[in-house]
Amino acid sequence: MKAILIEDDPSLALALRRFFETHGLVLEVAASIKSASARLRAEEWDFVLLDRMLPDGDGLGLIPEIRSLRPSASILVMTARDQISDRIQGLDSGADDYLVKPFNPDELLARMRAIERRIHSQLVSSVLALDHLEIDLGKRSVWCHGKPVELTTKQWSVLRTLLSRPNRIVTRQLLSESIYHSGDESESNTIEVFIHALRKRLQTNRIETIRGIGYRMNTLQSGEDG
Amino acid sequence: MATILGFHARSEIEEGLDNTLVDVSHRLLDLAIHDLQDGEDGEDEEDLDTWRQRPLKPMVQRGDRSYRDDYLIYQIHHRDGGVVLRSEDAPEHPLIDDQSPGFVSADRWRVYTYRHPEYPFYIQVADSLEHRRIATFESVIFLVGPLLAFLPLAGTLIYFSVRSALKPVGRLVKEIEHRDGGSLSDIDLSRMPTELAQIGSATNSLLGRLRDALDAERTSSAQIAHELRTPLASAIIELATAEKLAKGSGLVTMIENARKSLMSLSRRSERLLELSRVEQNTITQRREFNLVGLCQLSLEEYCDDETMTDAFSLVVPENADQIVGLGDSDSVAIMIRNLLDNAYCHGRSDKRIEIRFMRPATVYVIDFGPGIPAERVDELTRPSRRGSAEGSGFGLGLTIVKRLASRMKAVVRIKATEPESNSGCTVSIEFESPV
Fold it and tell me: Which of A220, B102, B223, B339 has the most crowded Cβ, counting Cβ within 10 A?
């Protein structure tokens, strides 16, 4: 696992680096958006640990660049900003997870492993079995009770975005961005329409509505961890 | 006002007509006496005294009906005799018996009597009362009627004009009303009249200063949080590393205790930061929020691992869309997080906690632990009062919840427990609702 930490506080950066080393992991450090941008262009990364309050701006502003340069990299935002509106902002920006300082470093590693497991399971086997559903993300096919289900392009985008963060809340903003290019206009109830269509076509109640925030795809079978 | 105008108009018309009677009587009597003196058919002057014996004859030529002469009639009387001359439409008998000069209203007539100062004649000129009434009525109608028709029209026009003129004021009031901690943008002055633009401009200036002050305060709060939390995070991570490296040595326990103390310090500093924010009243938004969704997000944020996730059971009601509160969502999330933390720390050892909802906007956090005795409920909202010696929580949490609640006009209720019942503790928050 190749991870980069974008953090301007030298003592925190050093502490995390040492902690990662004790677990046999390597952690590179960039202290600003500018230097991080250069490192991101130069090398491949599996993980980006991103602080928000950087000397040359809000770390969230770097996320689109990360997504464009390293689409397979996972992004975990670490920040002292703990308001719920900050968290929603972080989720809206496309981060995979959001961790508030100070945190237990074991928790940080646990979350990174959970993200890694999720991605790995998608890469190794792109077929997800859920109740009566078989969802093949690689082939873009869905089978319900053994019969194929046709989904439109946008319905697939919504489903894929929900499955990219299983059992975690995905905001409406993020879902909207997944189906519309920037500059396109969407109606305020468009996401509801797509979610309703997905629930109906997939005949599933695993897509949970988080009122006022977004949606969550529950993929846990009974007895499994999250 | 129409009535007063009507009465005044009538009075003026009566006066005018009376004046006419006076003028006519003076001229007619002089003319009549002059004619009488000339005699009939140009004969020599006669003794006027003999006229009381002469037959009556009208002054107006027969056949001349170019004007109506029945509105005005006259009789010329000899002082000692009867009617010596009359108009064609006047009766032969005297109109009234009274010879006194002046006005009398009698029968169908308004009669004016005038005595000649030299000769023994007097004239009575009469004006039909019916005519007067018709004339007065028509005058009042044509005077007051248009006014009566015009006044409501004028009133309506004035009403709509004023309303239209005041619309910009209403717009300005609405714009100002919509400004709150979450919306301090400038008011659009482009469509505002010059008179109001100054007020709008002054308001924008004030909003700008408020924006700067709030931004500075928020930045300062965020900066303080960053400056406090980052070194704490460093220290905790360093101790975690030391704990791993010291495994097997006698220092592990000490390092673990140090790390736990730091975690405890970190949690306390979070509460103190929250309390500081509450005291500074930086939280000023007032927006609608879905209480169920906000609790779901807060719960996801609070649960660090699967053990914690399994401890909580959030019961989503069927009418979740209708459970909408009014207030600052960041403050609500702080309150929820504090309740979750209290329930997790003070609840049962198997950590079973339920979160339930009720319309319009009430959330219940129920743990099934030892609960809180009635006598301790009030104490707990004072800072630094702990609920239980067994728990690891602080008294700050409930204090923060109560202070935020009072800011947001929400009501916090703590259900006390029966002694030795182990029925747990239920804390509810009822938020203001737009519904």
Answer: B339
